[in-house]
Design a protein that fits this description.
This protein has 337 residues and is an alpha+beta fold. It has 17 helices and 9 strands. It has a 7-stranded mixed β-sheet, with helices on both faces. Strand 2 (40-45), helix 3 and strand 3 (66-72) form a beta-alpha-beta unit. The longest helix is centred in the middle third of the chain and has 32 residues, at 142-173. It is elongated, with a radius of gyration of 27 Å.
Length: 337
């Protein structure tokens, strides 16, 4: 690297730190900074309802800018769910902060890890047109920006853990799901080991002391949630109540749900269709296969022994299916005589 290149690199690295305060035309300042983003936008914004700001975020997202936002669980935000879903389709990550943990009241964003915008200003029509607000824009102050990035990451982790713990606490303590324990002896190195088993499943958690089992389920809330999703016979009321928290990949494999075409239709946008195609306990029928023909995994479906296998099914779907399970016995000869 030549001397000129070293000087240019150092100029880029030694950008001038600046701090600005704004009390008027705040939205204009925020828009200007968002439009200048080249890599990323991270924001903890309590209320996100300003359509113009959301349109600019959408435009940046479809251009490949990484956008990750945390918003409050609030009725005002819910009113704009359609707009938020549109942002998600463009690639924007939006995390709704669980109000059971507390009110997420921050209003800050970090652009390209170089610019921090913070203050009282929510990204709303009211803030832009009616309220007295203020923001501070800090550029190239690495330590402060690092602190806010750490706070952003901390909010995401707290929200993730909090949602799972709330789910486990609620469904175990209030909704009557029983996590039963059993004790057994294994002959490994001549030692006795304890295990815990979920009722209605054959899934075993090894080496969990029985006297600590309640603590285990709560402290390992994510694991517990995944186990419940995968194995527990969850009814439709619980599915609906916690539809935004369940592990839907696990649910798609769960053989103990009250499977019906109506249930599949109700949550058709949430199932993991690859894993749903593997589930042998669905109410398999010609009608079900045909209804979601464009969603099934053809390979998984072709190896699913739960389908109503017959020569008729094979002939009807011979151009769709890729063979049939090896453990299925069809008396082909009687159709050929």
């Amino acid at each position: 690297m030549g001397l000129g290149e070293i000087i240019q690199r150092n100029k880029k690295e030694l950008k001038t730190m600046s701090i600005e305060s704004h009390f008027n035309n705040i939205k204009k300042e925020i828009l200007q900074n968002i439009k200048s983003a080249e890599k990323s936008i991270f924001g903890a914004i309590a209320w996100l309802t300003d359509k113009e700001l959301m349109n600019v975020l959408y435009t940046k997202a479809i251009k490949g800018i990484k956008i990750d936002l945390i918003i409050s669980d609030d009725q005002e935000n819910i009113k704009y769910l359609e707009f938020h879903n549109n942002l998600k389709r463009a690639g924007v990550q939006i995390h709704v902060y669980n109000k059971a943990i507390g009110l997420m009241h921050h209003k800050f964003c970090i652009i390209d890890n170089e610019t921090l915008i913070m203050g009282s200003y929510n990204w709303t029509f009211s803030a832009a047109n009616y309220n007295n607000e203020s923001i501070v824009i800090i550029k190239n102050e690495n330590e402060i920006i690092k602190n806010f990035k750490e706070e952003f990451n901390s909010l995401k982790i707290t929200n993730y853990k909090g949602s799972n713990i709330q789910l486990v606490n609620t469904i175990v303590q209030k909704d009557g799901i029983k996590l039963e324990t059993t004790q057994r002896t294994t002959q490994r190195n001549h030692q006795k080991s304890r295990s815990v088993r979920m009722s209605a499943t054959d899934y075993t958690l090894a080496l969990v002391p029985l006297d600590n089992i309640n603590i285990f389920w709560i402290e390992n809330a994510l694991f517990t949630k995944n186990i419940l999703s995968r194995y527990y016979p969850i009814n439709d009321n619980l599915l609906e109540k916690y539809k935004d928290i369940w592990d839907w990949k696990g649910l798609s494999l769960n053989r103990n749900l009250p499977w019906s075409i109506e249930l599949i239709e109700k949550y058709k946008d949430k199932w993991d269709w690859l894993f749903l195609s593997m589930n042998t306990e669905l109410s398999w029928s010609f009608e079900l296969i045909e209804k979601y023909k464009d969603k099934w995994s053809r390979l998984s479906l072709s190896n699913n022994s739960g389908l109503p296998w017959s020569l008729t099914l094979f002939l009807v779907y011979k151009d769709y299916l890729i063979g049939f399970p090896s453990n299925i016995s069809i008396n082909w000869y009687k159709y050929l005589i």
